[in-house]
Structure formats: structure tokens, C-alpha cells
Amino acid sequence: LAARQWKDAASQQVKLLARRLNEELSKGLGWLRSELGVDLGLKPELIPPWAIVLAACAGLLLMVALWASVCRAVFKKRPAVRPADEGAGIKQSVSKPVKSDEPKKKKKKAEKARQQNPHCQPCC
């Protein structure tokens, strides 16, 4: 007797949910038609209630999956540096100052050239 009452209550809740979703679908389609001029050709009263509930559950599941992936991307921790990567990091840090020293050397050479020949003026 309790199982039958439980099934009846669940069935009523599903029917209520399907009816509300059907009303919201009708409102949304009406809004699309009135505001944007888009007619999808759907008639909510002809769509079976199980299809509406299934589509709503699938949409909710998709939204949760997107939210989880965004949160994962935002709060993703950086991977720990491995011992093999440390050598590469040292090589990169050594190569960077070498690049910054090259323009300084060129400037020093240009200054020496100007000091040796004060009559020569740069054209640019």
C-alpha cells in the first residue's frame, strides 16, 4: 500500500513538473515569436511530457558539466616542477641574460666608435 502511494505521488510530481515545463516552453516560444520574429514550428501541447522532462534533465546536466569544467579550468593547479625540467629552467634563465647583454655590447661598440671619430655623426 505504501509503495503504491509513493508511486502515485511521484507520478503526480512528474506530471506537475511536465506541465510547468510545458508552460515555460510555450512562454519562451511566444517570446521568440514576438520579440525576435523566430518561429521554430514547435507546438508544446503535442510534445509528450516525458520528452520535455528528458530535455530539461539533459539541459541541466549539460549546464552542470559546463560549470564543472569552467571551475576546473579556473582553479587548476600548476604541475610541480620535475627534476628533468629544472635543467631546462636553468638553461632558459642563462640564455635570457645573454640576449639582454648583446644590445649593451652593441651600444658600447657604437660609443667607442664615436669617441674614436668625434667628427662622424650618426645619420639616424
UniProtKB/TrEMBL annotation:
GO terms for molecular function: transcription coregulator activity. The chain crosses the membrane at residues 50-75. This is LYRIC protein. The lineage of its organism: Eukaryota, Metazoa, Chordata, Craniata, Vertebrata. Residues 115-124 have a biased composition (Polar residues). Keywords: Membrane, Nucleus, Transmembrane, Transmembrane helix. Its main location: nucleus. Coiled coil: none annotated. The keyword Membrane applies. Residues 81-124 are annotated as: Disordered. GO terms for cellular component: nucleus. The keyword Glycosyltransferase does not apply. It comes from Oryzias sinensis. It is found in: Nucleus. InterPro entries: LYRIC, TransReg_TumorExp.
